[in-house]
From TrEMBL:
Gene3D superfamilies registered for this protein in UniProt: Pheromone/general odorant binding protein domain
Name of the protein: (African queen) hypothetical protein
Any one cellular-component term (Gene Ontology): extracellular region
GO biological process: olfactory behavior; sensory perception of smell
Species in which this protein is naturally found: Danaus chrysippus (African queen)
GO MF term set: dibutyl phthalate binding; odorant binding
Length: 169
């Protein structure tokens, strides 16, 4: 641990979590960013303050899978006002199946535009999509590989909403 490398062992993770909870750096299983930075400034030796604060900031940026899903769902809800879809169609999207419906494709295009995954011509930007995955999962090769496979399907088909792009600009 002295080099900033944490073993993914239950005992080590529990120990670190316990310390962070006692320092109020974690509250309700979420990072309390301001408290963590304050504790780093108050308690850590000068030579490790900055690296510790960089690590805390990296943790602040990280989102859980559930938070990412919630974010995409929020975007889909916003987009569904213009492009209504059924609950069944939303479930299909959640299962990575694309219903053959104009509103579904336009809803996807709307969401993808909001996250900068479509270019001005309505074509899927695989590099932009993968960049987001690299930011969210920098150390999880399995998730990155899964994302790359999923995005390659989007890139091959480029079916997101290219037929309807004029209606969603």
């Amino acid at each position: 641990m002295g080099k900033g490398i944490f073993a993914e062992e239950k005992e080590v993770m529990c120990y670190v979590a316990c310390i962070m909870k006692m320092a109020n750096a974690i509250k309700n299983n979420k990072l309390n960013y301001e408290a963590a930075i304050k504790q780093a400034d108050l308690l850590l030796p000068d030579e490790i303050k900055e690296p510790a604060k960089e690590a805390i900031t990296a943790c602040k940026k990280a989102r859980t899978d559930q938070e990412i899903r919630r974010w995409f769902l929020q975007l889909a809800v916003e987009c569904s006002k213009e492009h209504p879809v059924t609950k069944e169609e939303l479930q299909m999207l959640k299962d990575h199946k694309i219903p053959d419906d104009k509103n579904v494709k336009c809803l996807m295009a709307c969401v993808f535009r909001k996250v900068d995954w479509l270019d001005s011509n309505g074509m899927f930007k695989v590099d932009s999509a993968y960049k987001l995955s690299e930011e969210e999962y920098p150390d999880d090769k399995t998730k990155l590989d899964n994302a790359k496979n999923l995005y390659s399907l989007c890139e091959k088909g480029r079916v997101i909403c290219e037929l309807y792009v004029g209606q969603i600009k």
